[in-house]
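Please check this today:
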Amino acid sequence: MAIEKKYYSISEVAQMLGVNQSKIRFWEKEFSQYVKPRRNRKGDRMFSVKDIENLKIIRHLVEDLGFKLNGAKQYLKHNKSKLEAQIVVINKLKEIKHMLEDLRDSIE
């Protein structure tokens, strides 16, 4: 799902990241310096593109690299720009992988 809107609901963000909504709420609480969703009139969380990018970085640290929360916070504090660049590369590689898989499947 490409990021095109200004704000996204928690269910959309959870789907983008492949995690459940409770994990998004937990990360919001634990990484409040980096994830600050707005609230609509009903009180629902509305995540900005920047919030989503930060959640992708948090997910990468915690789930892909196996960081504990405190370690992820420290690493994020000192290496945020490096992580952002790595996430861009990882996402591009995933796109290429999916394209290659689709190509392979069309050949078979």
